[in-house]
Amino acid sequence: MSTVTAAPTRLTGVNPVAKLAAALVIAVGLVLSIDWVSASTALILEMILLLVLRVPLRTLFTRAAMVTLAAALTAVTILLYGESRGTVHWHFLLITVSDGSITLAVATFLRVLAIALPSVLLFVDTEPTELADGLGQVLRLPARFVLGALAGVRLVGLLGQDWRYLGYARRARGVADQGRVKRAAGQAFALLVSAIRRGSTLATAMEARGFGAHPTRTWARPSPFGRREVALICAAFVIVAVAIATSVATGHWNLIATR
């Protein structure tokens, strides 16, 4: 049986710690100001970077659509309940749509999009094991914490399968014939009990195999950090620097601390 593998990109093989650092640099730089100029500038540069990194267009559009929807919902909330300033276009009870709320909603939409998009797309081909290797070897985080988190992430994928099997078993016994709400509540409790038991068993097994012995911990796979990783982080700094410089030069810089 053949398996379909994702098309390789220039992000393939890049240390996940560098991707995490690049996403963090962009997020910290853009969260300092609420203005549409810095956010839109960063967004354009990010799209160029993602195209240079050869992120598949299908993946780019699919995940961008999901992020856009989340950003739009946030912008709608700001539009209806944001700062009232300038001309009021519509008012109803607590809802006020004004020039100030419209401007703030646009800036918020672009900023959420500019922050979330690289955070999602930079990890498009990153495996949890690779991220754990990087956190343990590059950032020197405690192996007990890293491997425990990795094991937890691995088990998350089993929740859906357990939910289906619990449903099949309860229907076979005639427990879930009526009452969807009651059935869902009982099945959710059974899933919680099953997850706790599996987690306890996994923790005992890991302790028995020495996963808690940090001084003697070795790593099966090396996690190199070289020029590609440094270039990615430098690109993130360039994006933030150009976005802030453009915003300041056009007079749209709006530092959050001064609001």
From TrEMBL:
Signal peptide: none annotated. It is found in: Membrane. Keywords: Cell membrane, Membrane, Transmembrane, Transmembrane helix. InterPro entries: ABC/ECF_trnsptr_transmembrane, ECF_transporter_component. The chain crosses the membrane at residues 20-53, 60-82, 102-124, 230-253. It is a multi-pass membrane protein. GO terms for cellular component: plasma membrane. Its main location: membrane. This is Energy-coupling factor transporter transmembrane protein EcfT.
